[in-house]
Amino acid sequence: MGLFVYRVVRRLVDRVLVAVGRVPNTEGLNLEGVGVEVRNGAVVVDDHSRTNVPSIYAAGDVTGKYMLASVAKVQGIVAAENAAGLNTRIDYELIPMVVFSDPEIASVGIVASKDDPRYIVTKMPNAINYRAIAYNKPYGWTKIVADRISRRIVGFHMIGPWASEIVNTASIAIRKGGLTLDELKEWVFSHPVFTELFIDAVELASGSNVYLPKR
Fold first, then answer.
1. Residues carrying an active site annotation
2. What is the pLDDT of residues 171-186, one digit of tens each?
3. Which domains does the chain possess?
């Protein structure tokens, strides 16, 4: 299958770039020599960016954690502050993931299917958003996952315009226990904006959306 796809693409373009992943660049650093734990080529760190050697910290792709610039930035800040005597940490439990394609794809939190009895799972078409219509981008969908018992939002997944931006709003709502659907539907957003896709999806999940029936 891979060879077939390659041959088809070769008929359309002159060159093909294949990105098959990344590996930590730790070879030759003699980390084992100073007692730093290395697992599968990656430096093992805790949520304080500290290795098993208390005076040695690591940040970025060498840790093998997510390998995202956003994560590396916070790891670096945390490492520097802790090396200076502070006590800060990075929260690995909620990391937004984004694919900067067209349309954009973004995801954070729990992934669940609609038939999972533990969750309320609602998918809303982005075509109802006035900003998306104005920008001629009325495609994709926004998905909300909420705990069925507590009604707290625990997941957000989206394909569509500005998904990379909207996922951060969802991350704030999910973080630290999560806000409930009823709490979130009280939020007032500016209008018309792409970010309304998040709050409209929440309203649909709670049964109060003005654009679509509950689904």
1. 191
2. 999 998 889 999 998 8
3. 32-83 (no CATH), 97-206 (3.30.390.30)
